[in-house]
Every structure is written in structure tokens, then in C-alpha cells.
User: Which sequence fits this backbone?
């Protein structure tokens, strides 16, 4: 009633393509270097625009008063002397790209939280290590070109 059907596929091209992709993925250092560069550029732009896509919360009146007394107001948020922005470093190896800061107060500005004596001061989150959709699209394009 049923006839046997046998289909044979020549998958040598698929195997070759997969092998090529696997070989490129053994050391993705050139790709990771470019991704680290995109992350660094994005972070620099986040400081320049004082947050993106969402703007950072404005400075508290008490902070404005302190900055005015020291001659740092008006000025950009998170950039009294520029130490946080200049502390940003990138690292990459054959399988990862990393960006961050080694400053003790870097995390509180990124994530927000309680700070100061007795943790009585609330610091709003002002995420400066953020990738926009455009940054992510650029990274994906790099990835596709790398694997091509």
C-alpha cells in the first residue's frame, strides 16, 4: 500500500560551513576588540548626553548647593572632576568583551542605592554602562560580518 521513499542529502557543504564557523569561533579576539570599542563609545556618549535612552535624574538641590560652593556648578551629572568617566576601561579576550570601572563608588552611580554615613543618602541610579538598541544592532552586524 505504501511505497518506501528514500532521500539522500549531500551535506558536505553544510559540514564545511559549520566547520568554518567553528574555526572562526575558536579565537574571536578581533570581534571582541570591536565589541569592546562599541561599548566604550556608547559609555562615552552616555556621559555626554547624561543618560540614554532615558535621561538621568536631575541633581538634588543639596548637591547643586555643594557644587556651586566649589565652583563645579553648572556642570554635567556624574562629572564633577571627570574621574568616573575617565576610569572606564575595557578588556577583551578570545571569547568576551568587558567594560567597567574600578572606582569604589562606580556601582552606586550605576545601580543607585543608599550611601554616606549611616547610609542615609539615597543616590538615584544613573546607568552609564548601557547599550542602546542601536549599539546592539551594531554588535549583531559585526557578528554577522565576522562569521560571514
Assistant:
Amino acid at each position: 500500500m505504501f511505497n518506501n521513499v528514500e532521500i539522500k542529502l549531500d551535506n558536505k557543504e553544510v559540514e564545511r560551513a559549520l566547520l568554518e564557523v567553528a574555526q572562526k569561533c575558536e579565537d574571536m579576539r578581533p570581534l571582541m576588540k570591536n565589541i569592546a570599542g562599541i561599548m566604550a563609545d556608547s559609555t562615552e556618549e552616555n556621559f555626554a548626553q547624561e543618560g540614554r535612552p532615558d535621561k538621568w535624574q536631575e541633581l538634588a538641590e543639596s548637591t547643586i548647593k555643594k557644587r556651586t560652593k566649589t565652583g563645579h556648578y553648572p556642570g554635567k551629572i556624574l562629572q564633577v572632576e571627570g574621574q568616573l568617566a575617565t576610569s572606564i576601561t575595557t578588556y577583551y579576550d578570545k571569547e568576551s568583551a568587558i567594560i567597567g570601572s574600578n572606582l569604589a563608588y562606580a556601582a552606586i552611580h550605576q545601580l543607585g542605592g543608599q550611601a554616606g554615613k549611616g547610609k542615609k543618602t539615597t543616590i538615584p541610579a544613573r546607568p552609564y554602562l548601557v547599550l542602546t538598541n542601536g549599539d546592539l544592532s551594531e554588535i549583531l552586524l559585526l557578528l554577522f560580518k565576522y562569521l560571514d
